[in-house]
Each structure stands twice: as structure tokens, then as C-alpha cells.
Design a protein that fits this description.
Elements (H helix, E strand, L loop, with lengths): L1 H16 L9 E2 L1 E8 L5 E8 L16 E8 L2 H8 L6 E2 L6 E4 L1 H6 L2 H9 L8 E5 L4 H6 L8 H15 L8 H9 L6 E10 L2 E13 L2 E6 L1 H10 L8 E5 L7 E5 L1
Parallel strand pairs: 1-5, 2-6, 6-7, 7-8
Antiparallel strand pairs: 2-3, 3-4, 8-9, 9-10, 11-12
Length: 259
């Protein structure tokens, strides 16, 4: 009995040895990560980091963005992430990121470049949304301001989930689903696209198209109407959405059908 008790206590000590306690003041929360391919075939990793609230002695934060975007270059995603540590004094809690952006150049080259590290890292949240940039870099998307939301990294997952219920055009894809489809023979990936546009003279984010992949490489795009059709073709419980049909009674008028 004593022998079994000693073994149990030893296993408990081994299980607790891997825990790393970190001071809250030494950490920073990333809201989103962006990956893009540079001209010299290096991987550029961009992180949107929530600005810590200043203390009463530290002064006011008026006129200051609630976030900063830091980027690093490397031959791999891990090396690029470590490069960001050279100009940031805090430990990054990567498990808090709710969005992963894949740059258009990287998507057309090979997404497996960063898919490996996303599937292996224990700090990556599998429920996070993954998207592809269209006509803009991940860094530009992360630097954009969104009305009524402090961070574009948290706003985009909300946008795509809300539009799915109201319009039913684009399908939100989690990292878990993305990795499953990428590694399954005969199943290809389709990811929603986002771009920086202009609204009333101000930069704004817009869900615009669906990136279609053949294997790990982007092969083409679907426009808004085609993306809505693809959503209805996909197996599963499709709920929410709206589409327009010509009115059967009145010429040159339309009827909105809401699901």
C-alpha cells in the first residue's frame, strides 16, 4: 500500500513539474496572428497585441490605440515568433488569439508552411477562426480600426458569425476544421476572404470572397453570390441567411426570403 502511495505521489510531482507560473504584469494578450510570405521567401508573422491599461501613475492613454502590431521575419513561423521577442518585453499568451490570417501570397504558394506549427503548438486555440486576406496584407488588416470594436482581431470572428445568420454568404472556418480538411485526401479547403476598403472616407474591413484551395495551395476564388451557393451546397445543418427573388406579383420588385 505504501509503495502504491509513493508511486502516486511521484506521478503527481511529475505532472506539476511542467506548470509554469507567470506574473500577469509580465504577459500580453495577442488577439490575432497573421502570416505572409516575403519576397525573399521568408515568413512574416504579425501579431496584434492588446495594449495593457496604464496605471494611475503611468499617465493617460487618450489618443492611443488600444493595440499594437508587431512583426517578425524568419525561415519558419517559430523563428519569426522568436524574433518578435527581441522588441517586446512581455510573454505572449498565444492561446488567447481568436483569429489567424493567411496572406494571399502565402495562400497561393503553400499553406503547409505554417499549418505544421499551428497543428503542433500546444498554445494554439483550435476554435479560432482562420481567414485569407484579399488585396491587403495581414499586417494592414490587423492595423485597421473597426467601429464599436477595439480590435480587428476580435471583430472579424464576430462579423463572420453574425453575417452567417443574417445574410448566409460566408462560412466561418475554425482552425480545427481547416487542419482536418487540409490533411484529408479528397477534401479541399475553402476559406473566407477579408480586405481593407473605404467607408465614408475611413478605412474599413470587408468580407469579400472565398478562397478555394487545391491541396495546400490557393487555386481560385468565389464571389459573393458563388460563396452563398457554396454554403448551401455544403453538407450540414444550414440555418440563417437571406436571399432575394423576383416578386411573383409585381414587376421590377423583389422579395427577401429569410431562412
Amino acid at each position: 500500500m505504501k509503495k502504491h502511495l509513493l508511486i502516486f505521489m511521484f506521478l503527481c510531482l511529475l505532472g506539476s513539474a511542467g506548470c509554469q507560473a507567470r506574473e500577469v504584469n509580465d504577459t500580453v494578450v495577442p488577439t490575432a496572428l497573421g502570416f505572409e510570405l516575403e519576397n525573399d521567401n521568408q515568413l512574416k508573422l504579425s501579431m496584434q497585441l492588446a495594449q495593457p491599461k496604464p496605471s494611475q501613475q503611468g499617465g493617460s492613454s487618450q489618443g492611443q490605440k488600444p493595440f499594437i502590431v508587431l512583426s517578425g521575419l524568419g525561415r519558419t513561423a517559430t523563428e519569426a515568433s522568436r524574433q518578435i521577442s527581441l522588441n517586446n518585453p512581455r510573454f505572449r499568451l498565444l492561446s488567447q488569439a481568436s483569429l489567424y490570417l493567411m496572406g494571399e501570397k502565402l495562400a497561393r504558394h503553400d499553406l503547409s508552411v505554417c499549418a505544421d506549427v499551428l497543428s503542433r503548438s500546444p498554445d494554439i486555440r483550435e476554435s479560432a477562426i482562420i481567414m485569407v486576406t484579399n488585396g491587403s496584407t495581414p499586417e494592414e488588416i490587423l492595423n485597421a480600426s473597426v467601429p464599436m470594436e477595439p480590435y480587428s482581431g476580435t471583430a472579424l470572428p464576430k462579423m463572420i458569425r453574425i453575417q452567417e445568420k443574417l445574410l448566409g454568404v460566408y462560412q466561418p472556418v475554425t482552425l480545427q476544421e481547416f487542419l482536418y480538411r487540409l490533411s484529408s485526401p479528397g477534401i479541399d479547403v475553402a476559406l473566407p476572404e477579408v480586405t481593407v476598403t473605404e467607408n465614408n472616407g475611413q478605412p474599413a474591413l470587408l468580407l469579400n470572397g472565398t478562397a478555394i484551395f487545391k491541396g495546400a495551395k490557393m487555386a481560385g476564388e468565389l464571389n459573393e453570390r458563388e460563396s452563398q451557393g457554396y454554403r448551401w451546397m455544403k453538407a450540414g445543418n444550414i440555418q440563417g441567411g437571406m436571399f432575394m427573388i423576383p416578386s411573383p406579383r409585381h414587376h421590377n420588385r423583389h422579395v427577401a426570403l429569410e431562412i
